[in-house]
Amino acid sequence: MFPKLAIASLGILATSIQCIDVTINSILDGEIKVASTQLDKMNFLLNNNLTWFFDFTTQPHYTYTPGAVVNADAATFPASTSYGMTMALINLGPCGMLPPHYHPRGTNFVVAVEGVTQTWMIEENGAKVVNQTLRPWQMTIFPRGSIHSMQNLGCTKATLVSALNSEDAGTQNILNGLAQLPPDIIAAAFGSPAAGFNLPPIPEVGTGSIIGSAACLAACRGKL
Questions:
Q1: How many C-beta atoms surround the C-beta of residue 188 within 10 A?
Q2: Quick one: DSSP state of residue 190?
Q3: Does the predicted TM-score (pTM) go above 0.85?
Q4: How far is CA 62 from CA 41, 46, 122, 123, 131, in A?
Q5: Distance (Å, rounded) from C-alpha 41 to C-alpha 32?
Q6: Where does this one sit in the cell (predicted)?
Q7: Per-domain residue ranges of the chain
Q8: Burial letters for 53-62: b for 16+ Cβ neighbours within 10 Å, e otherwise?
């Protein structure tokens, strides 16, 4: 069974480390961007002991409890600056999910490596929800600006690899952004302009992943 304490601990771990990318060295990134040639860029990197190697597993928020999004981008991997790409490793523990979010500056190609993951995507008002089940070596696309979410349907871990066509794609979790608006505006948006409307607590961004649906947790009860 899922002990209540264990589930609570998952939630604490999810919010203890922020997956918001912090730039390692903005001055170095700036120097790389203004390099006159690719040779100048390479020499600058090597002369400053910057590596062309990135290990996802050694990053601070690499975890499957309940999961994480680990980005190799201009902020975390200076050598990737000016290539217009981000590579991300998506870890989802049992029933782990990425809450609804969008990338304001990048289209996202996602490939499943292990596990079974359900994805949802909606591009704009009037569009239908695109619902996909990904198994190993299957992929889907989340266009730039589209709202999307995913959940590990299994009781073991799921892993996916993501490529975005921007070195600074950005991520906005929908509900975390919504919660920053004035309460009366949020209430009106929910069709409840009367006083007394309260938005339920929303998990922090954390490592990028949160615990998924009650249905998945119930299905995995006793299997972990």
A1: 14
A2: T
A3: no
A4: 29, 27, 28, 29, 27
A5: 6
A6: Secreted
A7: 4-219
A8: ebebeebebb
pLDDT tens by residue, 121-141: 999 999 999 999 999 999 999
Q: Mind listing the pLDDT tens digit for each residue in 75-120?
A: 899 888 889 999 999 999 999 999 999 999 999 999 999 999 999 9
H or E element that contains 150: strand 147-152
Q: How far apart are CA 15 and CA 203, in angstroms?
A: 7
Pair of tokens at residue 10: 């998952």
Q: Measuring CA to CA, which residue among 159, 169, 112, 106 is closest to residue 140?
A: 112
Listed in order, strand segments (DSSP E) in 8-142 are 67-72, 86-92, 96-102, 108-114, 117-122, 130-134, 139-142
User: pLDDT tens digit string along 6-65?
Assistant: 333 333 333 334 566 777 667 777 777 777 788 888 888 878 777 789 999 999 889 999
- First-to-last alpha carbon distance for the chain, in angstroms, is 7
